[in-house]
Amino acid sequence: MADLRRTRPRDLGVSLGTLDPGPRNAITDVEGVLIGHATVIRGDSIRTGVTAIVPRPGNGIRDPVPGAVHCFNGFGKPFGFTQVEELGEIETPILLTSTLNVPRVADALIDYILDQPGNESVESINPLVAETNDRWLNDARARAVGRDEVYSALQSARDTPPDEGTVGGGTGTVAFGFKGGIGTSSRRLPPSMGGHTIGVLVQTNYGGVLTIAGAPVGRELGQEFPRPRTPTSRGSVVVVVATDAPLDARNLRRVAARTMLGIARTGAAGSNGSGDYAIGFSTTGDRRSLLANADLDPLFWAAIEATEEAVYNSLFRATTVQSRDRTIDALPIDRTMEILRRHHRVEAYSQGTPRRS
After folding, report:
1. Of 195, 235, 292, 318, which residue is least crowded by CB atoms under 10 Å?
2. Residue 3 above 80 pLDDT?
């Protein structure tokens, strides 16, 4: 029997998608992408943080990456989106945090960029910050993320597999009534499909009735149809999708839009009060070899699959969190695996040969 610790579903044999992941199965499989977190847990009421996505090393003000944003439902408080929409470029790291911390995080990010060598004469910066509301577990009014936390997340950013679950901007989030958080996944296309890599990172804080690989996990765990004004029904999700494929802003927006199909596969409700956004960027700045529209179908599929799996990783890796007078339980992995086996979503192994259980 598998070790049912807080681990990823793929590591427990859950069959996810048709395309192969990259070696880390993380957004950092896209060369140059760095991820860092700062987690803030204080007393009995502060459960929050910030996650930093650095598109590539170097000075983004001097050498921005092609970028785009997609809004599925606009009940959110992002910072810096309009310039990205207008210019098709991202010039700073992307920071994910909680709702009321957005202005503080943006201000700290401006300080960080101004401090970088080569920016001594810079007088205009477009800090890119997105959020989900962690008020169910965090004292949002305390606004506990500031300059120190932002600098810590940025300075700790690495290209190694990032921490997932109850960490960084996902410290206080809730998804499907269970503990949500940060999740990541990737897909590497075969050479016949271009050989490019798509990496996704999500901050999950949204509602619905959980579906995993098509299996009705939420329903069999006793979830009812989402009741209004509960963490089961409401909330938001931010998706960051990176690729090494040479894409312009228009086609990055199209790829970003497909991530919401991955969110839909997980049983999302898309509630009135959800701020659901995707931010896409390419680490390849050579615009002489841009992919044609007709070449994008494999990237669309990769973005969908990586997003779906990143959501599951955020749930499987998250831990139970208690704050003030409430507790949000982590997804029960043992019961979830029983359901997935019953619905033939787990690979069984016989003499080293995988087969459907």
Report:
1. 292
2. no
